[in-house]
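Subject: for your reference before the review

Hello V.,

The reviewers asked for a structural picture of the protein, and I figured it would be easier to keep everything in one thread rather than splitting it across files. Below is the amino acid sequence we used in the manuscript, unchanged from the supplementary table.
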Amino acid sequence: MRRESNRNAAIRALLISVAILAGTNCLDARADWVATGPFGGVAEVIRVAPKQPNLVLAGSANGLLYQSLDGGQSWVHRYFPAQLAATLHALEADPRHRGTWYAGTESNNPRLAGVHKSEDGGATWKLLPGLTGKAIWALAVSPANPDIIAAGAADGVFLSRDAGASWARISPEANTDLRPVVSLAFHPADADVIYAGTTHLPWRTRDGGANWESIHSGMLDDSDVFSIAVDSRNPATVFASACSGVYRSGDGGGSWKRAATPPGAFRAYLVALDPGRPGVVFAATSAGLLRSMDGGVRWQRVSQHAVKSIAFDPANASKIYFASVTGGVLVSRDGGTTLADSNIGFSNRNFAAIAGSGRVLYISTVYEPANGGIFRTGDDGLHWRRMASPGVNENIVRLAAVPEDPDHVYAAGYRSLFSSTDGARTWAMQAGPPGGGHIAALLPLSRESLLVGTAAGLFRRTGGSWKAIELPGGRRSVELLQSSGGGAVTAVTAAGAFRSENGGASWAACGEPAANAVWYGLTLEPGPAGGALAATAQGLFRSTDRCASWVPVRGGLAQATVSAVVFHPQRAGEALATQFGTTFRTTDGGLTWQPLGDVGRNGAYPSALLILPGAPQRAFALFPRRGVLSAWIDPQQGNTSIGGN
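And here is what came back from the structure prediction:
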């Protein structure tokens, strides 16, 4: 019960954080999208704000940035201009000024690579001049003078003496051995002493970069030096983590001795010294996270997780934060003896598909054999449960649930089809359509009837037998199937769209909304109204004759790509559509539209929209990296609680 209570408290804290960051209160925030999970995934870097111990930033390698205002108990996504378009390698804070952060990135887009700076706690960022376009792998802020910042780039070391306003190269351009620079550390009291780790051994300057010396005596040749840590109490003691293990120097890097780590820990990705407890050293290795209580002489494994970054709470010596590629955000409250995941609000997974029936949602992730797969929730995302995998290392890219039976669900890999009748607890492989190949779309019509769209065309299975369905104009590749209830079904192909009013038994061609239209969605209004909405690359279109003819929709939308559209299953005239990453809502059949929340401005783009018949007051949206977000769409409701009705 304690674990459950802590989780619910964390979710309440998440909702409060959303409201605070939006500059409003909980009751006024009902239009905001709230992350519901499944949480966790891959975390790359974590840092604590020196002036605000409860403020923590966590980032992913693909540039997603999350902020915690409650000491890591819950997380809220913050916009970062290079998210999902750059690699975030480094994140550092100015120890003097609240809200001043530096982030180092690399990207194929030169306008996103370099050093980014925020002076308002991550609300806004600017790319600093001088290093624009450079691949930045490491950052270090001098403890002696925080205006002095070192940046490790693919082509050497750069230094700023004015808090990033200007930069100068301090490593010899002709020295190809001193590049790329993947780790940096300052002497705690002398800003002229800088250590630099490269993909082949470490270097040191003692005069601010005027001269550099290779310091690899005692290290195995050609060791990638992933991190360097200098003891703040005794600066002559320096640790380094390398592909050949953990090293310690007692003379400022002049010579090194390899630490005797446990078997299997031959590769060390990170070494960190606990600033509050002398002699305590952490090493993230190929055998998990190790801790030494005696300066690296003896080691004990404290976690199997692969850790990439460590941050120590300046206000609580027993509290330590870890960014992990296998566990997301981990927190220790006993000095690193035990670690527990703390991912409420933090999500960075490869989400592929979403499906729902009644009040049950299913979601799948791909390329995560250890901690991904299929997840299920039956309470609007308050609790997610990881379900059984349909097959060994099977990546599920399509999901669909039977309308009248939420426990009856179908899953498709790239070429395999599975079904479950017990809520994804167990699975059975099914024979796919003959000659169908890759399954692009799944649509159960009942327990006994299933429509499948493939590159070879449309197929229907009744009982255990398959039948090829001819669309008007001949068989063609089917890319999308949507149901509007009552037997109304739509199919989208590269050559046009089609509708069926009798569960796919017969089909009629839809009119073309625009010349050479590229379709992204087609939804029919439930009931006899005859309304239809088409999401296309040329914008949103509206029909009053069941998709036979179309008129373009403005009324709050631009003439630009609308990526998803869905009618409300129960409320006449209500629908949702997504454009530019923002979800819009209409209550008049598509004539006028209003934005639903502010997710779009945060750079998040939903790939699917869903309204569950069992939870008609909520809209759900699937975000490919962040999972399921939900928003209230019931005008009678003002409560933002994730589990509310």
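For the response letter, the relevant points are probably these. The first strand starts at residue 34 and ends at 37. Residues 2-21 form the longest helix (20 residues).

Happy to draft the paragraph if you're swamped.

O.
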